[in-house]
Structure prediction request, 407 residues.
Amino acid sequence: MRTDHLVLYHNIDQVLTLEGVAKKEGRHTTESDLGLIENANIVVNSETNEIEWIGPSKFMPLEYGEIVNAYAGSEELWIPELVECHTHLVHAGDRSHDYALRVKGKTYQEIAEEGGGIATTLKAIRETPLMNMVSNAQAELERFQRYGVGTIEVKSGYGLTLESECRMLEAVRALQETSGVNLVPTFLPAHMTPPEFKGRTDEYVEVICREWIPEVSRLKLARFFDVFIEEGFFNLAQTKKLLECALAAGFSLKLHADQFTDLGGVELGVKLGATSIDHLEQISEKGINALANSKTVGVLCPGASLFTGTAYAPARKLLDAGARIAISTDFNPGTCPSRNLPLMTTIACSQMQMTVPESLAAITYNAAAALGLEKELGTLEKGKQFRVCHLSQTSYESLPYCFGEFN
Ligand code: NIG
Ligand code: FE
Prediction:
């Protein structure tokens, strides 16, 4: 047997495969789904970076014993590399004043109505050259990597002209060329109505559908299309028009829904087969049912609730109903300027009654599913990408326990 393309990692103290999580499509996760292997071996095809064999070292087929590129494991715990499925990584300017205003009692929407919020970042991004966008985002990416993240979704949404939205997405493309992190770009032109279209949101939606969606699709700058459905931003009819148009142009769908107000976005997103619907703080019973009976992943953003001092999503109800739940930082300058994905599991466990195994599945397999990548990422199984996160602790339970620290 040819073994020169294979690499063997042997006698790794502990590996969590999360095999059972994948079998159950990320629903109703319990500790027994985490697939703990003690004294594990992993054989990797270095040409494809795919796992060829994984299991207890004593069961490894004899022929793999001939592999020359072999590395002994250490006293570590290996888990699937973390997946961050919702960020506004590319941004510019400073929003600390928004936070000071919120602490004094102003709401997110009031700040936006007064010209702050997303509009502040928009002004800064429009003045930022591509090169600076790339270098700022590179620095942010490195911060995410320090928390075990190896795949990350990145949205546009702060340019809100075709030219500046494309510049944001080109920054993501440029970053992908130099970074070992997997980047997943999302086109988010409906983040707010830009100043040029003030009071004319229907017209703005029309322009996005007629000109922007075809152009971004032609340039292949994004895999996903996203809308912020919210009072004062985009209503249900506008969201429906945008999502249908993006779907027809070949985009997969995401949605920011029910963050502050339930406008029926979840039911719409599920009907259109959205890959994920994110936020869900105000989701209704009907919405919970619709989501739980679908393949659509619900992405929760505990950091955004903590930081804005607003309600948490009803995680327990969603999980008990059988929904596939992922957790994200929602890293952005307005509602969660944190890159600490493991910390989000602490908030989810302490404030949203999630269990530790559920929270681990939520930043690995289910987060990969929120990006349509669960066949390649999120668990350590034969045929999956060899992307691992090394923990120095002896138990996976340390992930939320360490409370803001990592490794
Ligand atoms: O996911 N809610 C809308 N979008 C972001 C916040 C963007 C911003 O305030 O800059 C979010 O929370
Ligand atoms: Fe967001």
User: Anything to note?
Assistant: The chain has a mean pLDDT of 97. The pocket of fe (iii) ion (ligand 2) is lined by residues 86, 88, 256, 330, 332 (CB under 6 Å). The chain has two domains: 6-81+380-401, 82-369. The longest strand covers residues 6-16.
